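Suppose a colleague, Dr. K., hands you the sequence of a protein chain of 804 amino acids and asks what its three-dimensional shape might be. Before reaching for any lab equipment, you can write down a predicted structure in token form. Begin with the sequence itself:
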Amino acid sequence: MRSAAEEETHHSGVGIHQSSLLSWSKGKLAQGGGKGFALRQHAEFSENIRDFFSLRKDSWNQKRETNQVMSFQRTFSDDLAREKRARLRAERLYEQVQRELLAANERLKAHAFSLSHQVIAQREELSAVRSLAEALKGQHSQVSEDLHAAHSRAELANTRLREAVETLIDGFAVFDANEVLILANPAYLDLFHAFPEVRLGIRYQRMIEICAYEDLVSLEDWSPDDWVEMMMSRWTAAAIDPVDLHFTHGRSVRLVDRRAENGDFVSLANDITKMLEYQTELIEAQKRAEAAAEAKSAFLANMSHEIRTPMNGMVGMAQLLVETDLNDEQRNYAETISKSGESLVTIINDILDFSNMDAGRLELRPEIIDLEKTIHDVMIMLAPAARDKRVELILDYDLFLADPLKADQGRLRQVLTNLVGNAIKFTDSGYVLVRAIGVGNTAHGHMINITVEDTGIGISKANQDRIFTEFSQVEEMANRRFEGTGLGLAITRQIVAAMGGQIWVESEEGIGSCFGISLELQSEPDASARDIVRLDPSIRSVLIISDHLISREIIARRLQATGVNTLTATQIDASVRQIAKSRPDRVLLDQDLSAAAADVVLSGLAEHVPGTPVVMMCSNLLSAQSLRREKRIAAALPKPMLWRDLVCALGAPEHDSATCAQAGTPAASRPEAQHEVLRVLYAEDNRTNQLVFSKMLKGLKLDLTLAENGRQAVARFQELRPDVIFMDISMPEMDGREATQAIRALPGGAHVPIIACTAHALRDEIDRIMAVGVNAVLTKPLSKAELIKALQDHAPAGSDLTSP
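The predicted structure, expressed as tokens, is then:
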């Protein structure tokens, strides 16, 4: 048996072990860091352990008291054996409990660790969910607000759209895919106000039938059935064209229908009632305006004709008077009359042209042209005015331009006449140079620049911007020295623009001006750079004698381009020495040298190189004819010269002889002279004009016959077989058109040159005259230069116009 001390020691040990076990378990749990539910399980387990040991302690106290009673009856060994056994059991129990506690603690630790991670993950997930919930809550609130705002806007837009559709003055309707009217504004329904059946829910076909069979719409040439079928075909058409409906109640609409993607048929009925009324008024106003324009044009044309007829006599007589033997005062009077008449004619032409352009009658009629000859013809026509002012006219034409070209020859001549005429008008001395050069090829033709350069008064910078405007003059009214309407350059600008070109000016006041136009001229598909007409290879050198530097250099450059050596001289003595030294094959002599100087050159030629051909360049062709008759010169050419005329005069190869026919009608189509003296017939009913015509041709080698009307002209043609006919257009009994057609129908009349002379200046009228078969048209008042040139252009090959 245990003593009291031993028993106490035993129980104390058990208590110590219990306390240690409890402390150890709590420490382990504290090391495990368990929280929450795991901690509560651990606490319950610890409490159970304490209760267990507490009960055991009470049991042991009772046994101790019993053992004390029985201690006396037992031996010390029995007590000691029991004590050992009890201690052994206690130790085993303690070890077992300790192992169980350790295992439970490990499980509890692992469970607590797993739970802690789950709790942390759940807390993080809960935090994310709460954040997302907060964000979604904000978004939901914003979406709700946006949805509400959008709904409000949609309601407002729908209200506005409905109000807008209802307030439209034009009809608006929508039919669904089943042809049922689901929307229509009052303006649309008002078209059918007499038919209550037409309302929402009516079918499209029924509406069309009401229009057709109830006489609501004017069907024009349609039958009701055909009209309904036509209107119904719009329902299924892929592309729906607008259609105009004219209601019998007075309104007209234009239906513009479209098929929507959802199958709806949207119809807009534009009210065109007022538009049609305005259109009718506009057509009437246009007719009145056209009638007024026609009346104005007819009036201007009639006035032009009536003015030109007496002007022909006045200007013609003045020109003839100037050529007579007059004193200075008389010559001044005659020249004033002549220039005033010419100015009046220019004003009439400008007014007619401006009137036509203002009425939109500027028409272009492209045709095959010889550009060099077109420019040359204009310069020859204006040459007398330049000669009177001793202004040199010079032509520099690019020999390598393509040929032939297409352009409106009449309009191009008008532009050139204006530019060259102005240059002569504003130049008191020096020269006027017309230069035509190619600046490149285009897809359809060739870009060509034509410039007109002069040494005139020039234009200030301030005035250069306004010279192309209507009624503009360079000089102020109070200081004007030159007459004119101020329309010439404005008309020129409009013509050039209509031809697709540009016009410009470069000028320096007191030095001169340069006007230029740039045009794209079409060419024939097989057009190329033309073959240059060359001199006969036997002609190796040409001497050019002229006081005009620019003219001399241009001629020299063109000859050199064909392989001919050129020599130039200005002084007469130097020319004679040059002739003796160089012995040229040909000589070009400028007529503008004094008569004495020309005589010195010709005498030097006869002395040093007898037989050397001399070609004289003349400002006045007729004045050189005496030298030609005397055989002192081989040929005389008008300045400026056509290149082919120059080559032919100097000497072309034998195979190029066809090129050397007179300008105008080609040699192949020009009839040979039928008579020794050129026979000319002039049909004119005005005696004054007959006199002027006769005097202008006085001095030429020809036989002139007059006729007073078209009938006499036809009879004279049958009697005399003239070589050239000049035909007035407005004559009694038979006018010039009828006479021309009658002559063309007679034997031998198909090819005789007929040149119309008319006081009609409108282009349409000139075109009608050309259509009857004339070769050319001259506009009155006639000038001597124009008549002579017309004879040179159309007289039979081989005709000699020089005076006998």
